[in-house]
Amino acid sequence: MSLHHTLTAAAVAGLFAMPAAALDLTKMSSEERSIFRQEVRSYLMDNPEVIMEAVNVLEERQQQAQVQADLSMVTDNANEIFNDGFSYVGGNPDGDITLVEFLDYRCGYCKRAHGEVAKLLETDGNIRLIVKEFPILGDQSVLASRFAVATKQIAGGESYKALNDALMTVNGDVSLPMLRRLGTTLGLDTAAIEAQMDSADVTQEITRTRALAQKLRITGTPTFVVHDEMLRGYLPYDQMMEMIKEKRG
Predict the structure, then answer these.
(1) Which of 8-12, 140-144, 165-169, 206-210 has the least mean pLDDT?
(2) Residue 2 has pLDDT above 50, yes or no
(3) What is the pLDDT of residues 55-67, one digit of tens each?
(4) 60 with 68: CB under 8 angstroms?
(5) Is 104 helix (H, G, I), strand (E, B) or coil?
(6) 43 exposed, middle or buried (CB, 10 Å; 0-12, 13-18, 19+)?
(7) Alpha carbon of 71 to those of 75, 81, 83, 159, 244: distances in Å?
(8) Beta strand 223-226 pairing with 229-232
(9) How far apart are CA 228 and CA 122, in angstroms?
(10) How many Cβ atoms sit within 10 Å of the Cβ of residue 184?
């Protein structure tokens, strides 16, 4: 009996679930392969939802693989992520959960996430926050980050936090005169900060964070690390809170 007579639509569906070794097309004749292809095409045209089901399964597997890859990358780079010795540490320094944020002051989603993170720290009270300066959106982003890092090095963490909050609420272009005005408003020694901006120490911090981001395959902001898991992109407050609860559990 030929393949044409034995291959039904139901059989085609079953073939998709068979191991590759169980279906050897090389052992079919040209006529049988042609018939097989016609039957497959006919089945898919009659049941297009099968294609979407296959795509969904593929996407789910890819997501699972990405999660596992992220877990490994976080584990392999844990010291640089959580204890680099220079990134700003806020929230509760002794908190039981650490939240790390890679940010860019020109990123709209970073600005949106800033208020969500602040609410999270205020509501929970047991979260350690680490901020990673990751300017990737052009020269203005680099300028803002250099000023912020220089502020931290010259004036300390509290001044950095105040500037970070202010920069996240600023709309429009970033320029040195604007940064000077902002720093003056916050009572900062802008002359000392400006002198520090192009120093090797500031460059080293930003360079090390970029190198870490490359290891973690981070290409966008905001990117978060919550305990041992990476979140690539903006996440609303409720979902972030739920994830932290899961980590504690």
Answers:
(1) 8-12
(2) no
(3) 777 677 766 666 6
(4) no
(5) coil
(6) buried
(7) 6, 13, 17, 33, 16
(8) antiparallel
(9) 22
(10) 11
Summarize the confidence of residues 92-105 as an average pLDDT.
97
pLDDT tens per residue across span 35-84? 888 878 888 788 878 777 777 776 777 666 666 777 889 999 999 999 99
Proportion of the chain in helix, strand, coil states, percent, rounded to 5: 65, 10, 25
CA distance 177 to 194: 11
Per-residue pLDDT, 112: 95
Return the pLDDT at 27.
78
- Ramachandran angles phi, psi of 54, nearest 5°: -65, -40
- The total of other beta-carbon atoms located within 10 Å of residue 66's CB is 13
What global pTM score does this model have? Answer: 0.75
Going by C-alpha positions, the residue among 146, 156, 132 that lies closest to residue 194 is 146
